[in-house]
Amino acid sequence: MSPKPTKSSEAPAERNSLRFSAINAILLVAGLGVITLGYAMLANGSTVGAPLLLVLGYAVLIPLGIIL
Known about the structure:
It contains 3 helices and no strands. The chain is mainly alpha-helical. It has one domain.
């Protein structure tokens, strides 16, 4: 007996494709803006606000923009 034909070629393509939505773009742009602001504050001598913004951008917003 021959095995039943399946549409297995369509299912993996759907699971492996990356789909970026508007929320992804917003989070990535917000992350880049926060990082830029953090470096600007760092250049002006801020020792508290700048590292907080940089951590927020690099560790929170950019990964969320990629994951969601």
